[in-house]
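Input sequence (199 aa), recorded before submission:
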Amino acid sequence: MEHPIIDAREKPCPIPFVLAKKQIEEHTEDFTVLVDNEPAYQNLKKLAAASGYSAQIQQTEQGYSVVFSSDKAVHDFHDLQKPPAKSDEPWVLLLKSDVIGQGEFELGRNLMRMYLYTVRTGNDYPREIIVINKGILLATEDIHTIESLKMLEDAGVVVRVCGTCLDYYHKTEALKVGTVSNMYEIAHSLHEHKKVLSW
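Predicted structure, token format:
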């Protein structure tokens, strides 16, 4: 059987983890993931251990080679590594900023990109995504977050973008994804849903 080699170097978290997890879910017995930083291979080691695989780490000139091996093709995954069950309760994602947290802008922007990528590759989509204030930059400027939002929208998620905020930042013509909304619709949606996650 072919031994897949996945080159995840220069790919931000959680992409190496997600790519390895996909191989496990497809019951691939042996495969290798190439990464270029220590946190990535540490996360892959934990994934292997939690999924019934062994992981051999080899340091290379370009980073690390993580070899996943298993004696069987069908695995009993630990609950920690199983995809989270879909929530029966619909929820809304409120994006108030183009970054997550406070501190260095570049780190905060990358965390937001990683978060939206994780949501789009998961199996529990929000019913709606509401984008307000500087969060509108996620739908107008950042190609990475625009791609994630488009994929979620194509999957049926309603993406509402604050029209007043677009106008304030002079970004109305730059909107790449979602529909222009207003505070009446936004307030109604937030009041209608009991579960709201906000960044």
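Checked by second reader. The radius of gyration is 19 Å.
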